[in-house]
Specification:
Number of strands: 11
Largest sheet: 6 strands, mixed
CATH architecture: Alpha-Beta Complex
Strand content: 15-25%
Number of helices: 6
CATH topology: Sulfite Oxidase, Chain A, domain 2
Radius of gyration: 21 Å
Amino acid sequence: MGVPLVQGLSGQERREPRATGPGARGVRCVSQHPTGRPGRRTRSGGASRGERTPREARRRLGPRRPAPETARSTGQVSTPFSRLGARRRAGGVAADRLPPGQHLARGWPVLHYGPVPKKGLDGWDLQVFGRTASGHQTRWDWDAFQALPRTQVRADLHCVTKFSILDCAWTGVATTALLAAAPPAKAVTHVMVWAEFGYSANMTLADFASPQALLVTHRDGEPLSAEHGAPLRLVVPHLYAWKGPKWVRAVEYLAEDRRGFWEERGYHNRADPWREERYAYQEGDGNGPPR
């Protein structure tokens, strides 16, 4: 993963944790807690009294299954992946509203990679850099960003972990307005969107500039919560949600494609939910740069 101009947004160099998949900041849903508590070891090496050994536990629980990673190494989520499929809204939904493999969620599951940033708006900024038409970067503090034209888009959100939420009223700044305020050079074909802690997501310039793509501050008239990406997240409704990072801090203009955080880790470079483009092994020739 390349190093953005905004290196050190979190205030210090951070060692990249081991990851398992994308979800709402584009992070795959992983349980916060291990599936079991191993028995404490005694001096003789056996399990302590009253706790089953692993062999006894397997007899009771069935075949061994891989335990999910803990929040310490993979980030924090509020809903285990195994339960998301069961959280479906009652009543019928037209078949053409949900992409293949998706389920309708109740509410808005909170999924993300890493901790929730604790910073306020003092010192916050949004940068555009890379292959700009002017050759210079553009920067907005929060007040200046709020002065950009505002718009509202009603659109769905589809997470690669297979939940969808429908008919969201997103409010924010259209990506086309950002492109107009800080134009890319003619050679630009792709963008990399950077977020807190060095998270990134790549996409074509055409996808970034799509009519419904929005740098979001509000959903359904309410400000985003910190867990859902406040103060600013990207929403690109026609792509899986990991392409719309939470806690956005910068946009980099690229003259050639470069894989982002999850795209380097086995997830599809394009991420079209209607084609169910979840994983890199599904990519055909020309669908992305080498990993």
